[in-house]
Design a protein that fits this description.
Strand order of the largest sheet: 1-2-5-4-3-12
Distance between the termini: 112 Å
Shape: rod-shaped
Helix content: 25-40%
CATH superfamily of the largest domain: Rod shape-determining protein MreC, domain 1
Number of strands: 12
Order of helices and strands: HHEEEEEEEHEEEEE
Radius of gyration: 47 Å
Structural class: alpha+beta
Number of helices: 3
Strand content: 25-35%
Largest sheet: 6 strands, antiparallel, barrel
CATH topology of the largest domain: Thrombin, subunit H
CATH class of the largest domain: Mainly Beta
């Protein structure tokens, strides 16, 4: 450890300060009394200090400009962030408005569909889930027994027949569509009155069709004739539009004709349906 003491010169700091102050005052009074004596010194100091002052002034101005730029950048960032938030809010509002318009269009279509079949009472339902086929061959709706749903109630959308309820829970129901491979609907061809059977076919639906079978060989049906549900069905109510005929041909046995049917319902984009709450009375033939 270093125990050396600082040297003591015997003069207290306050006396040194007083001496310096006295000396400065004396110089000020002397320069005021004899200004010419200090002129060379003043000029020399000005010669050295003025460029420094100019440099300091220039640097100060540049620093002020930089500070202003940084302040402007901060303001722009704040404005940009505010604009981003406003844009996000506008996008959200726009999406909500688009969804509202879409929902309104759906409700308008359902209302028009309801008017197309005024003889039947109906309940609207939303689709909750569908099968994995890519089409709505079978799907679940958000209405069940507590809403009055029953097995064999007919389901419509897009101005035509979708299918029939096959299972009912307390708050949901399962619908089998006419496009399902297990579906079979007794039908009538408009203009000719010929009876036929509309059968589901998921393999054909990829081309936009399902099947029409058991059409009489002497039928005068033509392409684009409308096909409706028949009075003969035990489950499907009569007069519901199913679709349009095309590709009518005679089977190999020469006894009946077959055809394609283009469903009136878009089975790729269903979201809402109407359930007809009336059940078909028993008839003679099945389905």
């Amino acid at each position: 450890m270093n125990n050396r003491k600082k040297p003591n010169y015997g003069v207290e700091p306050k006396y040194i300060l007083m001496l310096c102050v006295t000396l400065c005052l004396g110089l000020i009074l002397f320069s005021y009394r004899f200004p010419k004596v200090f002129d060379p010194l003043r000029r020399a100091l000005n010669t050295c200090l003025v460029p420094m002052q100019k440099g300091i002034h220039v640097v100060g101005e540049q620093m002020d400009e930089v500070a202003v730029k940084f302040r402007d950048i901060d303001e722009l960032r704040a404005e940009n962030e505010a604009l981003r938030r406003e844009l996000t809010e506008l996008r959200n509002k726009n999406e909500m408005l688009e969804q509202d318009l879409y929902d309104m269009e759906l409700y308008k279509q359902l209302l028009e569909l309801d008017k197309s079949y005024p003889e039947y009472t109906k309940v609207g339902a939303n689709i909750l889930a569908r099968d994995s086929s890519g089409f709505y061959a079978t799907f679940t709706i958000d209405k069940g027994s507590k809403d009055g749903m029953k097995v064999n109630m007919n389901v419509i959308a897009d101005n035509g027949l979708v299918g029939i309820i096959t299972d009912v829970g307390s708050n949901y129901s399962i619908v089998r569509s006419i496009i399902d491979d297990d579906s079979s609907v007794s039908a009538t061809i408009m203009k000719t009155g010929d009876s036929c059977i509309v059968r589901g076919s998921l393999s054909l639906l990829s081309k936009g069709y399902i099947q029409v079978r058991d059409l009489k060989v002497n039928s005068q049906a033509k392409n684009n004739y409308k096909v409706y549900t028949s009075e003969l069905s035990t489950k499907y109510l009569p007069g519901l539009l199913i679709g349009y005929l095309s590709n009518i041909t005679t089977e190999a046995d020469g006894m009946t004709k077959v055809a394609y049917l283009t469903p009136v319902v878009d089975f790729e984009h269903l979201t809402t349906v109407l359930v007809i709450t009336q059940l078909k009375e028993a008839a003679v033939t099945p389905q």
